[in-house]
């Protein structure tokens, strides 16, 4: 066990040319994972992040949250932050000069690995692997979009990473930022208390989590599976693995395909045409209802991509209709 540096967890003193109200200035802890959020609505934070385990961890100094009020960097008497889209169109766009000043302010003390993230429906879908990477960084600065979005030049200039929660549009990025922060903070050391809590849950190994049960032993005529009451830990782990695989295979064939791909690389090399693909699927995926639909799809388009297994999940989703 290593001894933390003397500055770990202590308040830092920073020189500034801007007068500040020391009574209202939040305590800043050095060496603590920090989420810094640029938003038009700083009052939306911490929100649910201040509750339960994430709230307790924040009070215990395991992580910290800072907000940057975008309005304070606005233009003119009314501190305008947006303007009409170039080329015309509906809505308003966040100005690059305003956002640039806010980013420079937010990043002035960022050190080490400190990604700059923009919550946007255009970005890749957020997942557990992204949460793990953010948790391994020193902190993260998140930009909460509003209106029609952010001027593209800001994204290009700062090399901002765009992240999406899914294929839907929200009125702003604040709720998305809280979701990303929550998923990340729970992975920080000491937040959950039990490391196994993050190791045995959905997506930690590429599969969905197995079903969970608790007392009473019987409810509404439904009993807890006998194996979970047997006390045989080996059989319990085997059952949980089987349930995880079955759920993933039935509900998320894309995840199932990705989880199986590393085990089937050699076999995939033998699948080079549509005629053998369905046989391959039957042997590796079993009698999934989608296989019949896939056969119909291949009948109309027998062409295969260079790496068939990579495309299997996509084909199955198309076959589902």
Structure description:
Homodimer. This is tRNA (guanine-N(1)-)-methyltransferase. This protein has 321 residues and is an alpha/beta fold. The protein folds into 3 domains: 33-185, SPOUT methyltransferase, trefoil knot domain (Alpha/beta knot, 3-Layer(aba) Sandwich); 204-251, Trp Operon Repressor, Chain A (Orthogonal Bundle); 252-321. Helix content is 39%, strand content 11%. It is built from 13 helices and 9 strands. The strands form 3 sheets. A 5-stranded parallel β-sheet has the order 2-1-6-5-7, sandwiched between helices. Strands 3-4 form a two-stranded antiparallel ribbon. Helix 11 (274-285) packs antiparallel against helix 12. The longest helix is centred in the C-terminal third of the chain and has 19 residues, at 233-251. The radius of gyration is 25 Å and the shape is globular. It starts with 32 loop residues before the first strand and ends with a helix. Residues 4-8, 13-25 and 316-321 have low confidence and may be disordered.
Mean pLDDT: 81
Q: Mind telling me the C-alpha Rg?
A: 25 Å
Poorly predicted residue ranges: 4-8, 13-25, 316-321
The rounded distance between the terminal residues' Cα atoms is 54 Å
CATH architecture of the largest domain, please? 3-Layer(aba) Sandwich
Structural class: alpha/beta
Examine the coordinates and then state which fold CATH places here, giving the name of the CATH topology of the largest domain: Alpha/beta knot
Q: Look at the structure and give the CATH class of the largest domain.
A: Alpha Beta
Strand sequence of the main sheet, in spatial order? 2-1-6-5-7
Largest sheet: 5 strands, parallel
The helix/strand series, from N terminus to C terminus, equals EHEEEHEHEHEHHEEHHHHHHH
The percentage of residues in β strands lies in 5-15%
Helix content: 25-40%
Figure out the total of helices: 13
The 3D shape can be described as globular
Number of strands: 9
Number of domains: 3
Identify the CATH homologous superfamily of the largest domain.
SPOUT methyltransferase, trefoil knot domain
